[in-house]
Amino acid sequence: MNRRGRLWLLPVSVLAALVLGLLPLPAPVQGLRPYWLALVVAYWVIEEPERAGLGLAFVAGLLADVAFGALLGEQALRLVIMAFILQRFRTQLRFFPLPQQALAIGGLLFNDRVVAAALHLVLGLPQLPWAYWLAPLVGMALWMPLFLGFDAVRQVRRPR
């Protein structure tokens, strides 16, 4: 595999996740929007720990805070917590079958919602509606196609 030829994939995937997070959705399904950025950061932390870690999570979170108009540092903190947990258990996660990985990612996305709710509570911000607690299930369902898609793009050999 030619790793140098795939250097563009990480920044492009983070940018695509930011764009997907900005796309407008109808009000009834707004709460079901998966946390695309967390899914992308999770993939890179698991698969490319040399290039992606707490720094990527922090910078991507700050970019998301600016792009979404959120409290500066909120998403950065949430993504850093997730990346830290992923780094800690990376060796075990890599050997899980994909359905079991999806369950672990779902747990991390649920943990992200708990952290967001705690931050909102401490800062006196309004709490998210109950439908937002269903988004980790959507993210969990999207983990396998996202993982397989990224792996397919990373593994493609360039013709010589």
Automatic annotation (TrEMBL):
Spans through the membrane: 55-81, 102-124, 130-150
Keywords: Cell inner membrane, Cell membrane, Cell shape, Membrane, Transmembrane, Transmembrane helix
Pfam family, one: MreD
Membrane-topology descriptor: Multi-pass membrane protein
Location(s) in or outside the cell: Cell inner membrane; Cell membrane
NCBIfam families: shape_MreD
Family, as annotated: Belongs to the MreD family.
Function: Involved in formation of the rod shape of the cell. May also contribute to regulation of formation of penicillin-binding proteins.
Name of the protein: Rod shape-determining protein MreD
Source organism of the structure: Luteimonas composti
